[in-house]
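To illustrate the input format used throughout this study, we show a single complete record. The first block contains the structure-token representation of the backbone; no residue identities are included at this stage. The design step must infer an amino acid for every position from geometry alone.
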């Protein structure tokens, strides 16, 4: 059975449709993405306001956000397994709002960094609970389909986020961007609170027990599939973080000097990822998670190798269209891997979805942040460090998948049954 139909007996709110469910989960995930992407055009104003030496220093507002994001992922999952998904999300949104408020009144760059870490600590709830809630409802290929649809909506955010950030800068300062984050957190709290029922199944609710939490953690670490695909996911996420950290310098200022055209290029590349997520959602039930994701990681390595080649041929500054094509290929294939990697990592752990989501999220975020920091801080005025970072992360992820699958790629482990009926009235 793909869709889990056993639901709590009593609920305070009505059941959302499948479409609304996807939109709510996508909004949850998009809050974290918006908190990164709409700040990208503000790098130079922030650097100027605080008298920083280079834009590389401003990248720390992404790094500390992700550190806070990673650390708190350890806590939200176990907490949600104890008290439920709904109250845990509200706690996270309150923390996120506090961080947004502090950022509005930051009098130093250090204070802004502290505010960003608090924001990340709050936003972690949206990431952990979005995965846990989907796992509460679905499993197997159907879960991969839902995650792909959610990812497709989620990826629409980067298409518009830098443009929205630029618009705020046109009519105000970078502080107005943090006002928008605060507003989004309030809107999410209202929508989720009114429309999303508690999805934690009564039989899976855990009383507080350090032993049960540690037993859950031990079980996660004992699953070969979980550890392997979480590692591959963290490496791929690191390549994405490296791209986000250096994209403003590559496209807007130092390499291509696109200026106000930067949000258009950034959004176009994000649209490619959205298309790939839609294709994945359409094909995953027919072809399976392993076939699609293994094809994706193999193709990713080839495209990133092509990116390194063109970067070397043109001395680190290839023509914009040539670089954009190789980068778009990598981003397209990235979106064929991540939702499926995530689903396969979570698949054996449905009864401890919150704890599993926390541990997987913490591990992949820490790994991704460190890899991304190494890539973005290597920026030297050319695209070569990013290209090499993509290739290195891709090769390491490919090797990890090969080891996890014991050399047997493109072969499903079992025939994932398709649902005879879905939740939400389908």
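Output of the design step:
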């Amino acid at each position: 059975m793909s869709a889990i139909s056993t639901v709590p007996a009593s609920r305070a709110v009505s059941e959302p449709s499948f479409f609304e469910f996807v939109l709510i989960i996508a909004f949850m995930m998009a809050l974290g993405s918006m908190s990164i992407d709409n700040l990208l055009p503000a790098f130079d104003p922030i650097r100027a306001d605080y008298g920083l030496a280079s834009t590389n220093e401003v990248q720390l507002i992404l790094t500390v956000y992700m550190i806070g994001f990673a650390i708190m992922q350890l806590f939200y999952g176990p907490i949600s397994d104890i008290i439920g998904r709904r109250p845990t999300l509200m706690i996270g949104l309150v923390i996120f709002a506090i961080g947004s408020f502090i950022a509005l009144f930051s009098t130093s760059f250090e204070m802004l960094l502290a505010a960003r870490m608090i924001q990340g600590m709050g936003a972690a709830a949206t990431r952990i609970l979005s995965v846990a809630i989907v796992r509460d409802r679905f499993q197997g290929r159907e879960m991969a389909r839902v995650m792909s649809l959610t990812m497709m909506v989620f990826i629409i955010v980067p298409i518009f986020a830098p443009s929205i950030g630029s618009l705020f800068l046109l009519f105000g300062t970078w502080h107005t961007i943090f006002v928008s984050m605060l507003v989004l957190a309030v809107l999410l709290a209202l929508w989720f609170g009114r429309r999303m029922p508690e999805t934690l199944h009564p039989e899976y609710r855990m009383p507080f027990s350090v032993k049960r939490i540690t037993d859950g953690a031990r079980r996660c670490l004992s699953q070969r599939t979980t550890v392997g695909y979480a590692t591959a996911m963290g490496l791929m996420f690191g390549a994405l973080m490296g791209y986000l950290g250096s994209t403003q310098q590559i496209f807007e200022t130092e390499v291509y000097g696109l200026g106000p055209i930067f949000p258009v290029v950034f959004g176009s590349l994000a649209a490619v990822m959205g298309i790939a997520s839609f294709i994945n959602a359409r094909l995953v039930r027919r072809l399976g998670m392993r076939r699609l994701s293994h094809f994706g990681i193999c193709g990713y390595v080839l495209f990133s190798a092509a990116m390194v080649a063109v970067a070397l041929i043109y001395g680190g500054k290839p023509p914009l269209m040539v670089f954009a094509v190789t980068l778009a290929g990598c981003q397209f294939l990235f979106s064929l891997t991540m939702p499926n990697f995530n689903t396969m990592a979570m698949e054996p752990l449905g009864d401890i979805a919150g704890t599993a989501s926390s541990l997987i999220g913490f591990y992949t975020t820490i790994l991704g942040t460190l890899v991304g920091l190494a890539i973005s801080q290597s920026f030297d005025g050319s695209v070569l460090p990013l290209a090499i970072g993509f290739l290195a992360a891709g090769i390491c992820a490919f090797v990890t998948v090969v080891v996890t699958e014991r050399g047997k790629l493109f072969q499903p482990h079992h025939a994932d049954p398709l649902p005879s009926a879905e939740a939400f009235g389908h």
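Structural context for interpreting the output: The CA atoms of residues 93 and 185 lie 6 Å apart. The domain at 19-198+215-404 is CATH 1.20.1250.20 (Growth Hormone; Chain: A;).
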